[in-house]
Specification:
The chain is built from 34 helices and 20 strands. By secondary structure, it is of the alpha/beta class. Helix 27 links the parallel strand 13 and strand 14. The longest helix has 36 residues. The radius of gyration is 32 Å and the shape is globular. The termini are far apart. This is Pyruvate dehydrogenase E1 component. Pfam families: PDH_E1_M (PF17831), Transketolase_C_1 (PF22613), Transketolase_N (PF00456). Belongs to the transketolase family. Its cofactor is thiamine diphosphate; Mg(2+).
Length: 898
């Protein structure tokens, strides 16, 4: 008899059955088929019957849930390849050291936080991976592992036993600033590559970021292989995530992509400890059932790992399916209660539900019932699940591993509502934890939370090191071995932009033309990754479809409608463009995979992700922040930038804040160029910084969709463009009375205002192109700080001070909120006036919008006159005349109030 079909012998449920006798005959027939042909033949017949049902119009389809038991039958488990007792002992030592880290930090300082219960539940899931599956080595051969963030103390505890971290490092968990003063390395709260660049690869602390990132990293590995850049065959991505984390939209948003792309290099392990931060994940239901249906429906291979080996005997004796029926009617809230209670309670409340269950437990003591393991705590069962996942072909795999949150913490936290917040344990709880895991600590060592290391020559450490050596080395690790990538001279790909001779184009159009030229470079071109979120035609990129193609793992299996056109849609397995559909979260995840390829794969790539600027930092800022954490290198292009350039689109599409958000990301260099020449200079500078100098920075450039005559790049301004400010022009005779700063779409308004001030008011002014207020402010802050900390030395001067020294008023106009140009206000000695687009957007023409937000040339003129009047340099009556002359509505409400 096929082992996994034992439960089919249970009597048919007659409730609602019009013919129980016939039903039993069908059951017997299926059992006979299993006996004679095995499971594969049974699947073939069942698939055929499902097709017949569909073809006949029968409104039926198979359910997506299977019984609440392990997917892999005991008889199908491979032999465990390690020393089971040794590995259980190692897991216990790591549990203790992880617990000691958190509790010591909170006993000593009371405010550092940390988590015990998550790693207590996931320790065995990690250990089987570390000992048997997670491969390390050089970047182009290693597996990628996304770690459940709250389990970081356990990963540190393993590194301690491996000799990679010292005891003093563990003692400085969450004390990153104080640690160096004590000769220690501070350990970050969660996985943070920016803080521990040789250790962590992927930041996962913001829930949902790890899951979506792992999917797009898996797809990007296939992209590298299909394009012939790197052979990723055999490499795998493992993600260990929480069941509560699956509620995040990012966790679920790309499941169908993983199945559609047949990413069998991807394995998720969902730690189903049934508990979120405050209580059950699904108190009145079963999260395992919900996730099984979700993943199976999305096309994933689902492996349920629910019950440990101790349950095998109970299932074997359960000929009538009593256990399965009991699990089918037990919700997670009750399972959590069972986890929190002892063996006696479980005997009475679970096994005592009916006589058949009680009979199954008769041979077990209360202590044995208490020690019945859930599947995620059984190394043998975990290994069987991982082994099956690693060998599954054609689909991504998810392992739903049931555990107990706070496993082993007893009354102090196991399965309790408050366990996630448990930071401290009293003496009795510590001694109980020691006894539960048979730790080699005396009472005083346990009570004092002594870290335990068996010694570098101990059997435990030798075993652990041998296992890691066989798998290629230690993990986590972030080796950076990428060679610099040469950047072609700007004149070879952007001459049309720096010397356009007045030709009309938008900076968006100019960027796409530059990108097309860069793609032709024999060295850099293959490393460029153009990325769009279903807006390539909007941005004028359709010509690239034919030039480099759109990546599709299956190639193009159809004849496109526009096959005869010059701009026809072309997909190819070696296509270069990543066209992600309407998913900004997916597109930025692809960008991150490419932007970190230099460290993850040892293969530097240069991604350009172009998108509607409004749908960048505002919509996916958390993913961009995670990109910064993992030291991404690449370009983000905010197209149709500003609040007045996308006239007809209105409130939801007009961007007035992305540059301000970008300015808050420390390693993001944000620019708002007005001209194609400025854009070209910034792209060249960024490429050299990231590819040749290998700086851990990324660039955000805004792009304008307004076709205008483009000026030739003046001599001697390249450095000013990069630093954020250069003098563009002057109008009028004599010393300038004021300085007008403009950027992006509003620079031309400032230029026009300067001419109006000269022509209408005989006031000379000069115009400055402010390509980046954030770069100006950062450098000014650096200089200000240096001067403050070095009072006895000659003071330094900032680029901003050298440009705008003196007392002439400064009027800065932007297509972004006032806070963007106001970043430099504290560093300007002269009167400073910021004009911006605060408020909600509207649908209208560009001219109407600039008037509405009071950033057009007329308002810049008025702001200049007002500043000069308040300085006593002109009569205030000039302002009244200007209002009348230019028809400015003084009674309208401020735009930010409307």
């Amino acid at each position: 008899m096929y082992d996994d079909a034992r439960h089919l012998h249970a009597p048919a449920n007659a409730q609602g059955d019009s013919d129980p006798e016939e039903t039993q005959e069908w059951r017997d027939a299926l059992l006979s088929l299993l006996d004679a042909g095995g499971p594969q033949r049974a699947r073939e017949i069942l698939d055929m019957l499902a097709r017949v049902a569909g073809e006949s119009g029968l409104a039926w389809r198979p359910g997506l849930n299977t019984p609440y038991v392990n997917t892999i039958a005991a008889s199908a488990q491979p032999p465990f390849p390690g020393d089971l007792a040794m590995e259980e002992r190692l897991a216990s030592l790591m549990r203790w050291n992880a617990l000691a880290m958190v509790v010591r930090a909170n006993q000593a300082y009371g405010e550092l936080g940390g988590h015990i219960a998550s790693y207590a539940s996931a320790a065995d899931l990690f250990e089987v991976g570390f000992n048997h599956f997670f491969r390390a080595g050089v970047p182009d051969a290693a597996d990628l592992v996304f770690y459940q963030p709250h389990s970081a103390p356990g990963v540190y505890a393993r590194a301690f036993l491996e000799g990679r971290l010292a005891e003093r490092d563990l003692a400085h968990y969450r004390r990153e600033l104080a640690a160096p003063r004590h000769g220690a390395q501070g350990l970050s709260s969660y996985p943070h590559p920016w803080l521990m660049p040789a250790f962590w690869q992927f930041p996962t602390g913001s829930m949902g970021i790890g899951p979506i990132s792992s999917i797009y990293h898996a797809r990007f590995m296939r992209y590298l292989s299909h394009r012939g850049l790197l052979d990723t065959t055999g490499r795998r991505i493992w993600g260990i995530f929480g069941d509560g984390e699956m509620d995040e939209p990012e966790s679920m948003s790309a499941l169908t992509l993983a199945a559609r792309e047949k990413l069998d290099n991807l394995v998720w392990v969902v730690n189903c400890n049934l508990q979120r931060l405050d209580g059950p994940v699904r108190g009145n239901g079963r999260i395992v059932d919900e996730l099984e249906a979700l993943f199976a429906g999305a096309g994933w291979n689902v492996i349920k790992l629910l019950w440990g080996s101790d349950w095998d005997g109970l299932f074997a004796r359960d000929t009538n399916g009593a256990l399965r029926q009991a699990f089918a009617r037990t919700v997670d809230g009750q399972l959590q209660t069972f986890a929190a209670k002892d063996g006696r309670f479980n005997r009475e409340r679970f096994f005592g539900q009916d006589p058949e269950l009680a009979a199954l437990a008769e041979g077990l003591t209360d202590a044995q019932i208490d020690l019945l393991k859930r599947g995620g705590h059984d190394l043998v069962k975990i290994h069987a699940a991982y082994h099956a996942a690693a060998r599954h072909a054609g689909r991504p795999t998810v392992i739903l591993a049931q555990t107990k949150k706070g496993y082993g913490m007893g009354e102090a936290g196991q399965g309790r509502m408050t366990t996630h917040q448990q930071k401290k344990l009293d003496r009795d709880a510590l001694l109980a934890f020691r006894d539960r895991f048979e730790l080699p600590l005396d009472d005083e060592q346990a009570a004092s939370l002594a870290f335990y290391h068996p010694g570098p020559d101990s059997a435990e450490v030798r075993y652990l090191q041998e296992k890691r050596t066989a798998l290629g080395g230690h993990l986590p690790a972030r080796p950076v071995r990428a060679e610099p990538l040469p950047v072609p001279a700007l004149e070879t790909w952007g001459k049309f932009a720096i010397a356009p001779e007045g030709k009309e184009m938008s900076t968006t159009m100019a960027f796409v033309r530059m990108l097309g030229s860069l793609l032709k470079d024999p060295t850099l071109g293959p490393r460029i990754v153009p990325i769009v979120a279903d807006e390539a035609r909007t941005f004028g990129m359709a010509g690239l479809f034919r030039q480099v193609g759109i990546y599709a793992s299956a190639g193009q299996c159809y004849e496109p409608e526009d096959i005869g056109s010059v701009l026809s849609y072309r997909e190819a397995s070696n296509g270069q463009i990543l066209e992600e559909g309407i998913s900004e979260a997916g597109a930025i995840s692809s960008w991150v995979a490419a932007a970190t390829s230099y460290s993850v794969h040892g293969t530097p790539m240069l991604p350009f992700y172009i998108y509607y600027s409004m749908f960048g930092f505002q919509r996916i800022g958390d993913l961009i922040w995670a990109a910064a954490d993992q030291r991404a290198r690449g370009f983000l292009l905010g197209a149709t930038a500003g609040r007045t350039t996308l006239g007809g689109e209105g409130l939801q599409h007009q961007d007035g804040s992305s540059l301000l958000s970008a300015a808050a990301v420390p390693n993001c260099r944000a620019y708002d160029p007005a001209f194609a020449a400025e854009t070209a200079v910034l792209i060249e500078h960024g490429m050299r910084a990231m590819l040749e100098e290998q700086q851990d920075v990324f660039y955000y450039l805004t792009l304008i969709n307004e076709n205008q005559a483009q000026p030739t790049l003046p001599d001697g301004v390249r450095d000013g463009i990069v630093q954020g400010l250069y003098r563009y022009a002057g109008h009028g005779k004599g010393e300038p009375a004021a300085r007008l700063l403009g950027s992006g779409a509003i620079l031309r308004e400032a230029i026009a205002a300067s001419q109006m001030l000269a022509d209408d008011w005989d006031i000379p002014t000069e115009v400055w192109s402010a390509t980046s207020y954030s770069e100006l402010a950062r450098q000014a802050q650096d200089v200000e700080r240096w001067n403050r900390l070095h009072p006895g030395q000659a003071p330094r001067t900032s680029h901003l001070e050298r440009c705008l020294g003196g007392t002439q008023p400064v009027i800065a106009a932007s297509d972004y909120v006032r806070a963007w140009p106001a970043l430099i206000a504290p560093h300007c000695a002269a009167r400073f006036v910021a004009l911006g687009t605060d408020g909600f957007g509207r649908s209208d023409t560009r001219a109407e919008l600039r008037d509405f937000f009071e950033v057009d040339r007329r308002h810049i003129v008025l702001a200049t006159l007002d500043a000069l009047a308040r300085e006593g340099r002109i009569d205030i009556e000039c302002c009244q005349r200007a209002i009348a002359r230019y028809g400015i509505d003084v009674e309208s409400a401020a735009p930010w109030t409307r």
